[in-house]
Amino acid sequence: MDVGLTGYGRYVPEGVLTGAEVAERSGIPEEVVVEKMGMRRKHVCPPDGDHCTDMALEAADDALADAGVDAADLDLVLYHGSEYKDHIVWSAAADIAERLGAENAYATESYTLCAGCPVALRQARAQLLAEELDTVLLVTASREEDLLDYENERSSFMFNFGSGGAACVLEADPAPDRTKAVVRESAAVTDGSFSEDVVMPAGGSVNPASHDTVDGDLHYLDVPDPDGMKERLAPVSLPNYLEVADGALSRSGYGREDVDFVAVTHMKRSFHRTLLEELGVDPEEDAYYLDEYGHMQSVDQVVALDEGLDRGRVAPGDVVLFLAAGTGYTWSATALEWRGA
Questions:
Q1: 182: which strand partners?
Q2: What pTM was estimated for this model as a whole?
């Protein structure tokens, strides 16, 4: 049995914050924001709209239409987006399923932060291969840009955070003329020594929300020891990216030489180039750099794929690698064979 991706969708809000505006807010030179951090602009949500469920629904509607699947035929709605969503301690997946009319699906959530897309593909594929399910909708969204304090230099590596949503429909053994891609194998690795390097200081059980935490601006993302994190992350990030890439590829019967397109998490421009060159692909022709979007958590891979398709960089028969990493720190990858139906 094959697991096929039969439809996908994406959504970004209309609001835009340019690299120049980020530079002005943060005091970082515009050239550094645009060229080094790799962010010409990013999409941002208005305060009173485009919540995570709204963006996920927009993308889900497009994905279902693309697949020719009715929401009532879904067996599972899996939300793998941001934990910063409409409400806390709350199921966005259940809300999305209800609003879609997915009355026969169960709804659940999966969190691997920015490494979530390949992990969600792996989870859904396993259930489909086990013949537990026939049709799955993966949905994701993020507006973590809300959690940035541009005056906090310690968190500057996150100033690329933008907003958006994405969705994919996966089916067990779909007809060839309905299969956009066959989902192959995955790999992931976690280094938990980074688990407390990126935190929001208040709002959890360790430091519950209070007037003092609000007055102290403790509800923004922070990096307590940015130099220490950078010193420890630099030696392991590239090897771990390559480890999960090689793992997903080899389990799928491929090698680096077979990769035709890489849809990867947004990162600083120089590391993006180094990573792709290590994988043996052309950064300009075999990938799409998200400098017009920034980093949208686990949305990045679908948007990068869609932009690559629009530019003719992905063709039937190509091996596509979804590659991601998220604080915690987890690196993940999933290989797909593009069919292009």
A1: 4, 337
A2: 0.97
